Amino acid sequence: MAKKAAIKIDKEKAGQTVKAVWPILKKTYPNAKCALDHKNPLQLLIATILSAQCTDVRVNIVTKTLFKKYKTAADWAKAPLEEIEQDIKSTGFYRNKAFNIKSACNKIVDEHNGKVPDNMEQLLELNGVGRKTANVLLGNAFDTPGIVCDTHVLRLSRRLALSANTHDAVKLEFDLMEIVPEKNWTLFSHLIVFHGRNICKARKPDCANCPIKNHCPAADNPKRW
Ligand code: SF4
Questions:
Q1: How many structural domains does the chain have?
Q2: Which CATH number belongs to the domain containing residue 86 in this structure?
Q3: Between the CA of residue 166 and those of 97, 110, 192, what are the distances in Å?
Q4: Positive or negative: CA dihedral 179, 185, 189, 192
Q5: How far, in Å, from the CA of 54 to the mean position of ligand 1?
Q6: What is the C-alpha to C-alpha distance for residues 82 and 80, in angstroms, rounded to an integer?
Q7: Residue 205 Cα: closest atom of ligand 1
Q8: Is there a catalytic annotation at residue 132?
Q9: What's the pTM value of the predicted model, to 2 decimals?
Q10: Could you tell me which of 35, 33, 63 has the C-alpha nearest to residue 47?
Q11: Is 137 domain-assigned?
């Protein structure tokens, strides 16, 4: 694998880059939003757990039927583990996911009156929930700003030189929290994910047609970044 360039991050410059790309990405992706279908916090929690190592498209196919069968946290909590495993099998890593879903829902029933908690601290106490999943919930189900550092956000933050910590999702999240205005955290994550899926792809970034190329230090040679 080609050696990646060592990146020196200038926080002020990174902040200016965020400021410059924000209106362009907003205009380019006016419909940027969470790609996981859900109607309530519980559905989003389940969908997010299922989305690990699985495409959002597949998760949406599976949850379409799943959410008709399991409507409440109690439904998941009382279902036999083996049954949940079979129901979610096609999303991969189904044993782990089934265990996490069932035990998270047990806790939600026992300690939160059947409602998904709406704060980072209590979300992190649920099995299968790390900061990434918690931020998905906060930003998309509870209207509380959250930066979600998925693979696209990691890669684009590196190419745009927003942080030196683009191999560590938690450190990156805290770096981005300093340079992205808090009210924009959730939408910023969606915009970057949309851009990563559509133009700044991992293997073949389309720099020639990239609307933010004038603000991107990797535009000349994205493979090095
Ligand atoms: S110029 Fe290239 S590397 Fe930079 S954001 Fe656009 S597609 Fe990605």
A1: 2
A2: 1.10.340.30
A3: 26, 37, 14
A4: negative
A5: 25
A6: 5
A7: 7
A8: yes
A9: 0.93
A10: 63
A11: yes
